[in-house]
């Protein structure tokens, strides 16, 4: 305070007030006159704004002149001594600088630093880049009386044979023709002839449409040339406006194929065809190439003679020279290779000449428009095998051939005798022979002599072929097989007589051999054979029956003589075979049974009956012998008594005796083991009396308790009323096995059987019940919300914005639960998903934004029902908006120590809500972190002037509105930049957005505020590229000249000290949208009254689009006409939009906006 008082003492005295220069007008009248002039200037400005809302060069000069006038009038008022209008010099300088700067910027454009290149740009040139709106579409009505030759631009051509004239139409609008004149130019001589169509002929060839008021006249044309409609008159002899179009008529184009060779070709041959074209070049020809009905369309474009010049081909020709339209003949050679055997067809589809005359070929004729070639496969020949071929003496054999191609074939063969073939001599064959083969006939060569045969060549009707390998074969001569048989009787042991023969054979021929023989008795004859692989072999024949046997060997086969050689060798013998008995192993060597059961065993016999059988039963080292006699059949059943004791029993066949007393001790290993179990199997459901629960739609395993020996077979049934069924589970190997069911209900066990015998069901465990688990549910807890008239629709009491609130819910099922719901408020719906571990919980409600919030609960799942189940429950709550408070003028200011701001310069606070308000304001010394809090009550107005307190120490201070409460009791804690005023010290350089924006567009200004000591260095990245700029002022402005991503990374003082690294200083700059009408060109469409024209507008940007277009009147010489209508189209989702118009005018887009930006721009950002 002392320093301040000293400064005040040393301050110079205030200047003496000057006397008024105008004394004849009192000060109140001066103020009145000045006020009227200012009101007049602003009235002119308002009028100019209403007339032309968008700036023009002349309008900029107008505004600049008005501002200068204001300065000229306002500043001298102090010198005129107009009381209460004496501005300070600082204010005058600021106002003058503002006016001059704003006027300069309006005229010359505001210059700022480009954010992409750091160069200086005019931001208005970026904002008002006319390339964002391109093209215009002009729609005009056709005049009333017009005549047009060939109005539909049809194509006409003259047939050569037969010669028929064509009728070319002339369309007359709103006027009936009386006579007309047309011209003809001969393309051969360029000679022009005028032809008048008389009224009589015209009326004869006239058709009319009285409703549409149109007339058609058909001009008969029978000579090629160029035709133009020169003049036309109506019945009043008034000229009818004629279109200066022309029709060029030529002979219809002709195309044909001419083959250079025959239609039969072979694979790899060339196919040569000439395509003859006749008409007006250039020609476009399409033809189809078919290979076995598989077609490929071929196109030949732009066919013309050498050095042919035509405007159709974009070349310059002499004006009025139509010799290019003469008839020309062009020959096009077509060459292709026959690479596959097929029918090749070249078929003309159509031909188009240079005048777009098209002739389509039907393809029915096979003369000129179609040519066909049959491509034959080249034949081939080879032997099916190169193995040595054996032939019998005096016989012949066939060498099988494989022939390819189309028969008949002609094959040349060579023969080398056996001695020549063995020597390997390469001399000429002993015999050469040509053989003819017909299709579908035998393709074999008959040979009889031993030696070598070889294929030399092959050909068929159309083509020569190729001999493939194997192409040669060796033939040898083979003799029949023979055999020598020696027989030795086999005597019986311990019994009289013989039991068989031992046969030894010696063989010649080709292995393997088959020796066939028969065994004949009084009652039967048995035929058999032996497969022999060696030239000497011994085997035995031992019949099973008693009596006289004859062994007769009657046939010998070898590997070559398959039909065999007849032989006759006989051996006679009386056979005495030993008896034999064996178990029939139908059920295996081991059997299982239970105590009290018996078993039956089948025994098979061989020999001479009746038989006596002796067998033993062994149990616990005790052996019991049993004898069964007088067994007359060859099979017998041994039935055991019921087993009294459990254990293992072994049944063994000991001896068998036949009718002659000859006995045979049997093989001890041929026995049957019987396992006898004491306990029978049991089955029951393992349950504690409670029903088994499972998920609806799933399956459940019903546990079993099994005793006995696996595997088990059980039967069980369902006692459900809806689905009674009897079911079987087989081959259960686990005593704790289970059966699987899918339906709830009561299930009963019916029977059980293990590997030994049938058991019983335990009565106390016969039944089990299966039930579905209950599905999870969700409901609002009692007292938490009010149920409305709509089912399952609740409403919770309103709360203030930002107030913590939650609703209690009750869940049933098994934890944890997963619920999903959707929150619908003022913005987009928010899907939510929560996992809850307790059946009674609370769900937090969103209260951050005011409005009506709706919570729609959609699905619920728990630990059992893991797949979400749909539910229907809705909760609604109204969130009351909290009051807001912010400084109207958000700026940084300096304040002297110990002084307060004048009331007129004190900041004003804008309040929103329901008054009266209470404010909590904090004043913070950022050096000492001391915070002084002030509470202001009963603020009745929405604009409040806040006078800051005195600051008694040097430092950085901030004044912040931290809380505001309105009459509803709702409060808001303030933490935004708009709720703060700041006195900065140059401790650490900092930067912040001066104008916060969510969306930036090309042409926007990115304004930043710097704090600290100037100058500053701002470091930033643009699209990943590092850049920096120097600012000498605390406000720095970038011009967004291109789209991209901008991030402020740091700000420093010039010496790179006291750097601040801001967070979240990233901006995305979107490009301005573009509207292109009629492909960016000026398009003129002539339509008749009542018709519609399509105007296509293309968009570049991010949909949805909104655009405004105008329709202006058409004035001569391109003068701008007045705007007849303005239309706005919104919510265009695609990048192309069509307008269908039926009115005359100039259609132009004047405004385009996409999701982020618009053009032309009035402000810094337009949110679409």
UniProtKB/TrEMBL annotation:
One of its GO terms (biological process) is protein import into nucleus. InterPro entries: Ig-like_fold, Ig-like_POM152, Ig-like_POM152_1st, Ig-like_POM152_9th, Ig_POM152, Pom152. One of its GO terms (cellular component) is nuclear pore transmembrane ring. Keywords: Membrane, Transmembrane, Transmembrane helix. Pfam families: Ig-like_POM152 (PF24312), Ig-like_Pom152_1 (PF24519), Ig-like_Pom152_9 (PF24527), Ig_Pom152 (PF23664). GO terms for molecular function: structural constituent of nuclear pore. Residues 385-473, 680-764 form the Nucleoporin POM152 Ig-like domain. The chain crosses the membrane at residues 58-79. Residues 478-581, 800-867 form the Nucleoporin POM152 immunoglobulin-like domain. Residues 146-249 form the Nucleoporin POM152 first Ig-like domain. Residues 990-1058 form the Nucleoporin POM152 ninth Ig-like domain. Coiled coil: none annotated. PANTHER family: NUCLEOPORIN POM152. This is 6627_t:CDS:1. It comes from Paraglomus occultum. The lineage of its organism: Eukaryota, Fungi, Fungi incertae sedis, Mucoromycota, Glomeromycotina.
């Amino acid at each position: 305070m002392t320093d301040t008082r000293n400064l005040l003492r040393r301050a110079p005295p205030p200047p003496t007030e000057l006397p008024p220069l105008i004394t004849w007008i009192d000060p109140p009248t001066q103020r009145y006159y000045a006020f009227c002039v200012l009101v007049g200037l602003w009235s002119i400005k308002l009028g100019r704004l209403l007339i032309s809302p968008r700036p023009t060069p002349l309008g900029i000069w107008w505004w600049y002149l008005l501002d200068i006038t204001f300065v000229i009038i306002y500043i001298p008022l102090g010198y005129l001594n107009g009381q209460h209008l004496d501005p300070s010099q600082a204010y005058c300088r600021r106002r003058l600088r503002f006016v001059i700067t704003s006027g300069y910027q309006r005229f010359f454009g505001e210059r700022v630093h480009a954010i992409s290149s750091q160069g200086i740009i005019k931001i208005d040139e970026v904002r008002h880049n006319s390339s964002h709106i391109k093209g215009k579409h002009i729609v005009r009505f056709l005049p009333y009386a017009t005549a047009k030759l060939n109005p539909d631009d049809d194509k006409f051509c003259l047939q050569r044979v037969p010669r028929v004239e064509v009728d070319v139409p002339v369309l007359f609008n709103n006027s009936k023709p009386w006579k007309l004149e047309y011209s003809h130019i001969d393309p051969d001589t360029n000679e022009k002839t005028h032809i008048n169509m008389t009224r009589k002929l015209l009326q004869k060839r006239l058709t009319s449409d009285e409703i549409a008021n149109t007339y058609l006249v058909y001009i008969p044309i029978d000579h090629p040339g160029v035709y133009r409609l020169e003049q036309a008159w109506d019945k009043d002899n008034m000229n009818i406006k004629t279109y200066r179009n022309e029709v060029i008529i030529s002979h219809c184009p002709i195309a044909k194929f001419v083959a250079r060779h025959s239609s039969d070709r072979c694979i790899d041959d060339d196919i040569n065809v000439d395509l003859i074209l006749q008409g007006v070049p250039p020609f476009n020809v399409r033809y189809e190439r078919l290979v076995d009905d598989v077609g490929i369309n071929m196109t030949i474009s732009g066919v013309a003679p050498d050095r042919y010049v035509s405007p159709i081909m974009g070349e310059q020709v002499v004006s009025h020279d139509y010799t290019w339209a003469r008839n020309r003949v062009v020959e096009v050679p077509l060459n292709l290779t026959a690479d596959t055997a097929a029918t090749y067809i070249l078929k003309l589809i159509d031909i188009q000449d240079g005048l777009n005359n098209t002739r389509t070929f039907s393809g029915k004729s096979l003369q000129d428009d179609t040519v066909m070639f049959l491509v034959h496969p080249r034949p081939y020949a080879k032997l099916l095998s190169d193995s040595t071929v054996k032939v019998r003496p005096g016989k012949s054999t066939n060498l099988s051939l494989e022939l390819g191609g189309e028969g008949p074939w002609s094959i040349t063969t060579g023969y080398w005798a056996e001695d020549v073939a063995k020597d390997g001599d390469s001399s000429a064959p002993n015999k050469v022979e040509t053989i003819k083969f017909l299709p579908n006939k035998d393709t074999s060569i008959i040979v009889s002599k031993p030696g070598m045969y070889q294929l030399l060549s092959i050909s068929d009707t159309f083509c020569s072929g190729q001999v493939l390998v194997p192409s040669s074969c060796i033939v040898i001569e083979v003799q029949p097989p023979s055999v020598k048989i020696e027989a030795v009787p086999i005597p019986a042991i311990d019994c009289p007589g013989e039991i068989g023969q031992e046969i030894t054979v010696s063989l010649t021929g080709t292995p393997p051999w088959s020796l066939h023989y028969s065994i004949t008795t009084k009652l039967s004859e048995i035929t058999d054979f032996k497969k022999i692989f060696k030239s000497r072999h011994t085997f035995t024949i031992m019949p099973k029956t008693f009596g006289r046997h004859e062994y007769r060997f009657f046939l010998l086969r070898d590997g070559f003589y398959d039909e065999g050689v007849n032989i006759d060798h006989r051996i006679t013998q009386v056979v005495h075979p030993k008896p034999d008995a064996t178990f029939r192993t139908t059920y295996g060597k081991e059997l299982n049974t239970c105590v009290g059961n018996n078993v039956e065993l089948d025994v098979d016999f061989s020999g001479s009956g009746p038989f006596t059988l002796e067998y033993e039963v062994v149990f616990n080292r005790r052996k019991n012998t049993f004898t069964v006699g007088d067994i007359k059949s060859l099979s017998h059943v041994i039935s055991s008594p019921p087993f009294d004791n459990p254990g293992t029993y072994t049944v063994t066949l000991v001896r068998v005796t036949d009718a002659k007393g000859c006995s045979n001790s049997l093989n001890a290993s041929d026995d049957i083991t019987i396992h006898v179990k004491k306990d029978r199997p049991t089955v029951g459901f393992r349950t504690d009396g409670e029903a088994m629960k499972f998920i609806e739609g799933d399956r459940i395993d019903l546990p079993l308790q099994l005793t006995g020996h696996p595997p088990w077979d059980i039967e069980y049934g369902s006692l459900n009323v809806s689905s009674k069924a009897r079911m079987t589970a087989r081959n259960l190997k686990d005593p704790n096995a289970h059966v699987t069911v899918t339906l709830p209900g009561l299930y009963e066990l019916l029977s059980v059987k293990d590997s030994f015998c049938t058991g019983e069901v335990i009565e106390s465990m016969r039944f089990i019940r299966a039930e579905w688990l209950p599905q999870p549910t969700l409901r609002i807890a009692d007292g938490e919300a009010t149920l409305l008239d709509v089912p399952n629709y609740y409403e919770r009491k309103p709360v203030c914005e930002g107030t913590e609130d939650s609703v209690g819910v009750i869940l049933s099922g098994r934890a944890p639960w997963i619920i999903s719901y959707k929150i619908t408020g003022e913005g987009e719906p928010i899907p939510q998903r929560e996992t809850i571990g307790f059946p009674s919980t609370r769900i937090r409600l969103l209260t951050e934004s005011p409005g009506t919030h709706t919570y729609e609960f959609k699905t619920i799942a728990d630990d059992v029902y893991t797949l979400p189940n749909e539910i229907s429950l809705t909760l609604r709550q109204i969130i009351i908006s909290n009051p807001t408070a912010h400084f109207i003028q958000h700026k940084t200011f300096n304040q002297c120590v110990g002084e307060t701001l004048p009331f007129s310069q004190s900041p004003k606070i804008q309040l929103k809500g329901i008054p009266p308000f209470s404010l909590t304001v904090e004043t913070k010394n950022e050096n000492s972190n001391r915070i002084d809090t002030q509470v202001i009550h009963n603020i009745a107005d929405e604009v409040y002037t806040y006078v800051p307190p005195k600051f008694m120490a040097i430092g950085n201070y901030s004044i912040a509105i931290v809380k505001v409460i309105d009459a509803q009791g709702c409060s808001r804690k303030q933490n935004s930049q708009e709720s703060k005023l700041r006195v900065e010290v140059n401790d650490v350089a900092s930067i912040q957005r001066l104008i916060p924006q969510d969306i930036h567009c090309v042409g926007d200004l990115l304004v930043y505020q710097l704090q600290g000591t100037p100058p500053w260095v701002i470091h930033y990245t643009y699209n990943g590229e590092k850049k920096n700029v120097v600012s000498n002022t605390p406000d720095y402005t970038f011009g967004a000249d291109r789209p991209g991503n901008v991030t402020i990374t740091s700000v420093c003082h010039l010496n790179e000290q006291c750097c601040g690294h801001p967070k979240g200083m990233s901006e995305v700059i979107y490009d301005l949208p573009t509207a292109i009408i009629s492909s960016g060109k000026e398009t003129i469409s002539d339509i008749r009254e009542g018709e519609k024209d399509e105007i296509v507008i293309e968009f570049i940007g991010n949909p949805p689009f909104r655009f405004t277009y105008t329709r202006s009147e058409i004035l001569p010489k391109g003068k701008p006409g007045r705007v007849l209508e303005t239309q706005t189209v919104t919510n265009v989702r695609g990048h192309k939009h069509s307008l269908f118009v039926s009115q005359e005018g100039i259609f132009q887009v004047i405004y385009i906006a996409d999701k982020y930006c618009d053009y032309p721009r009035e402000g810094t950002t337009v949110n679409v």
